[in-house]
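Probable dual-specificity RNA methyltransferase RlmN, pasting as requested.
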Amino acid sequence: MNDRPTLPLVMSEPRGRAKPPRHLADLDEGGRRALLEEMGLPGFRAKQLSTHYFARLVDDPSEMTDLPAGQRDELVSALLPDLMTPLRTLEADRGTTRKTLWKLFDGALVESVLMRYPDRVTICVSSQAGCGMACPFCATGQGGLQRNMSTAEIVEQVVAGARSLARDEVPGGPGRVSNVVFMGMGEPLANYKAVIGAVRRLTDPSPAGLGMSARGVTVSTVGLVPRINQLTDEGIPVTLALSLHAPDDELRNELVPINTRFSVAETVEAAWNYARVTKRRVSIEYAMMRGINDQGWRADLLAEVLNGYGDWGWVHVNLIPLNPTPGSKWTASDPADEREFVRRLESHGIPTTVRDTRGREIDGACGQLAATES
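Structure tokens follow.
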């Protein structure tokens, strides 16, 4: 009999908990106008506020000179309330990797990471304060779930990074965010409504949103199959990243407890169907753990599982050298075992990459900085 706790598909908010301030990023264009009009303010001002936030990346109301001075504070208070406060920013890679610890309005802590490469800028964002998926090797999972983040709290992490780039605060000159990955704290698909709202704000044309390409957005999941199916029908061609970590149910039940509800076969089939419908290649995320999941035979088994849906290029594997948390029994694989794992996957025709290990010296694994601060 399985005595594991049942993990919910969508994390509900505890009763009585105060909600984050409503922000224009929580609303579409019509919702922003309607809110202002309900407050007795001119609805057309919503587009001006959106332009300041998404296009000009302004966070100082005194710079919003096209708003009437007598209404400016009220307009800003209505649609641009403060959402989060930076507590610490740590830098690595000569300043091109920046990890920020944010304090939300209720004291919850979340993290985001900006990574600048020669050809792109990627921001890794959190979608929940903590995580309820309970994966034992993950610092965030060990802390449990505090609450879901709002759409605007998720978007603000990206906008804050965009401001830093626009203001030339990141080495390499002024730039723009090209990629957003939902791989920070939390299980994105367990906060489905807010995450999809954030994806829409990121991809809405400016000034309604940031005007990013959906192809530059990656949404990760540990395998909430009904939510993967829902995302398949959403009509937004983001990249799906499935955190698999093991090709067999016995081990994955231990590493990713949600697997006791949705097996490896069910989870991979849902990911394959996403690729089939959207024509977007799925990324299989696989954290390499020494002596746990890095054996050569598991590479062969992983290839067998993935190739069961044909070899039309629907998938690639992204191996992640584990960034261990202090005192944890989980540690990174030996480089020789990692190379052999890659060799075996590629010999079966599975495109494979090894993730760039940025940020190790700044508590790079999700949840480490928040856990240290707490």
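Note for the archive: Residues 1-5 have pLDDT under 50 and may be disordered.
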